[in-house]
Amino acid sequence: MTVAQETLNNPSAGSGSLALNLMKLRTFIALFAVLIFFSLAAPNFLSTANLILMSKHVALNAFLAMGMTFVIVTGGIDLSVGSIVGLCGMVAGGLILNGLDLRIGYTIFFNIYEVMAITLLVGILIGAVNGLLITKLNVAPFIATLGTLYIARGLALLSSGGATFPNLVGRADFGTQGYAVLGAGRLLGLPTSVWILAVLALAAAYMARCTPLGRHIFAVGGNERAAGLSGIRVNRVKLFVYMFSGFCAAVVGLVVSSELMASHPATGESFELNAIAAAVLGGTSMSGGRGTIGGTIIGAFVIGILSDGLVMMGVSEFWQMVIKGLVIVIAVVVDQAQRRLQQRVALRQMARLA
Question: What sections of the protein cross the membrane (predicted)?
């Protein structure tokens, strides 16, 4: 491979462009900017209690954003994650309170670990439905996941007639107590959800960087046809990323219902917006082929801090939605600008080497 070809494959190599470097560091810059702004504008923003509370909110965004990152890297989108959160929360709440009614005079009650496992399986199965619609029936990802968004939300509402499953303390004789530890417990002073996030993020980052599956995910997003011709099973890769996204959404459903000790069918509404915003802000390209778990986690911090800071400043929820929408648009615009600048830098570098 010639030096010119290496430069084309890695456009940033040898680049001294200040603008390009700033674009690459945009997530860190945004993180420091929101930290400084809210530490000055919002009283007690950096207090220990508030930082712990923000860490919980960041964890929820990060779980969903990790799954969304892999989906977007393959060139897809998953609009159903918020509804999966709501449905999985209702599944867990229903199993804890009422068990599984077999309609033949018998009801099965599962212990708390079995409830969690079943809930995670539900999320994975919905992700599999998304993946099969996209790979086997050739439904566009936007349409497929929009459909499952409505289906999952409808099932969540049907499970209780639109009511809440309250007081999920469980029963000792059925082994369903201890659910609160998942969302409200702490380990070494940090919420349990933060430790779960750390483990899952490390596993996802390792998979993305160090395993054949991770390389296949990026190959599919970079050039799906070339990936298929090189022997990569494109459909299996896509099926996996949607199943992983469903798994991450199920984790959030468990954490939220555990923290509240109640399940509500409307839980998770608009969560998909935060997930997309965190992934895109973290450097995941909406055109596919590029993204990192580390960048996504930082993007989740930015979105979480932005949301909590606006609440502390008394900004209305309506304006918060406007601001989050602007963040997504600006992040995509900057990403496109970075790609164009990288291409121009590569062409100039190749011209000098010619």
Answer: 27-46, 58-77, 83-100, 112-133, 139-158, 179-208, 239-256, 293-312, 318-334
The answer as to whether 287 is a domain residue is yes
- Kindly report the CATH number assigned to the domain that includes residue 193: 1.10.3470
The count of C-alpha atoms lying within 13 angstroms of the C-alpha of 249, restricted to the half-sphere facing its C-beta, is 40
What is the pLDDT, as a whole number, of residue 4? 39
The span from the CA of 226 to the CA of 31, in Å, is 37
What is the predicted pLDDT for the residue at 15? Answer: 43
Q: For residue 17, what pLDDT is reported?
A: 67
- Give a yes or no: residue 289 inside a domain: yes
In a domain, 347, yes or no: yes
Classify residue 307: in a domain, yes or no: yes
Task: Look up the domain containing 51 and give its range.
Answer: 47-353
The answer to whether residues 238 and 129 touch, using CB atoms and an 8 Å cutoff, is no
pLDDT digits (tens, 9 = 90+) for 242-269: 999 999 999 999 999 998 889 999 988 8
CA distance 112 to 27: 39
Instruction: Scan for tokens 């393959």, then name that residue.
Output: 74
Number of structural domains found in the chain: 1
Tokens of 8: 């084309």
Q: Compute how many other C-beta atoms are within 10 angstroms of the C-beta atom of residue 31.
A: 17
Q: How many whole angstroms separate alpha carbon 118 and alpha carbon 259? A: 19
